[in-house]
Amino acid sequence: MSQGSAQAPARQAQIRTATWGSCLLAFSCLLTYWLTTEVLTLAYSAPRADDELGGLWAVLATVFVVRQSYEQSLAAALSRMSATLVSFALCLVYLAFLPFHPWALALLIGLSVITVTLIGRPQDATTAAITTAVVMIVAEVSPHDAWRQPILRLADTVIGVIVGLAAAWTGLRAIRHRAPGARRDEQSVVRKPSG
User: Fold this and answer.
1) Is the dihedral of CA 35, 109, 115, 92 positive or negative?
2) Which residues make Cβ contacts (< 8 Å) with residue 41, sequence separation at least 6?
3) Least C-beta-crowded within 10 Å: which of 75, 152, 167, 192?
4) Residue in 149, 130, 136, 146 with CA at minimum distance from that of residue 83
5) Which domain holds residue 111?
6) pLDDT for the residue numbered 61
7) How far apart are the C-alpha atoms of 22 and 31, rounded to whole Å?
8) Considering the domain boundaries, does residue 23 fall inside one?
9) Mean per-residue pLDDT for 121-138?
10) What's the pTM?
11) CB proximity list for 69: less than 8 A, separation 6 or greater
12) Domain assignment present for 193
C-alpha cells in the first residue's frame, strides 16, 4: 500500500470535518444575523441602517467565538464579552453627556485599552479598542440618541456570542458522534484561532 493511499482516509476525514465546520459557521452566522436584524428589532425602534450594523456586529461576534474546541470558544467568548463590557461602560458614560468628538474617540480607545490591561486581561486590549472605535464612530454617523449605541452593540455582541457558543458545542458533539474515540482537542470545528 502506498503512502498516498494510506493518507487518503485521513484527508477525507479532514475534508468532512472542514465542510461540516464551514456549514455550521455559515448557518450560525445566518441565524445570528436574523436574530439581530429581525427579532431584536422588535424590542426597539431604530433606523434600518442601525439594524444592519447590529447584524454585522453580531455576526462578527459569532465568527470570533467559534474555535477549534469548546474550551477555546468559551475563552474567546469571555474575551469578547469582557472587552465589550469595558467599551460599553466607557462609551455609555461619555455619550450620555457629550456628543462624538475625534479627541473623545482617541481618549476612549486609550482608556479601554488601559482598563482591560489593568483588570488583568491585556489580551482583550485590541478587541476593546475596536469595539470602542465602532461605537463612537457609529455615534458620529447616527448622532440622534447616540447614548443608545453602546447598549445596542452590547445586545448584538451577546446574541453573537451565545449563537457562537451554541454552534461550537453543537459542532463538537456532532464531530465526536461521527468519530467515536476521537480526542476532543484534536477536533477542528471551523478554523484555527487567530493571533
Assistant:
1) negative
2) 51, 54
3) 192
4) 130
5) 10-186
6) 96
7) 14
8) yes
9) 96
10) 0.82
11) 168, 172, 184, 185, 187, 189
12) no
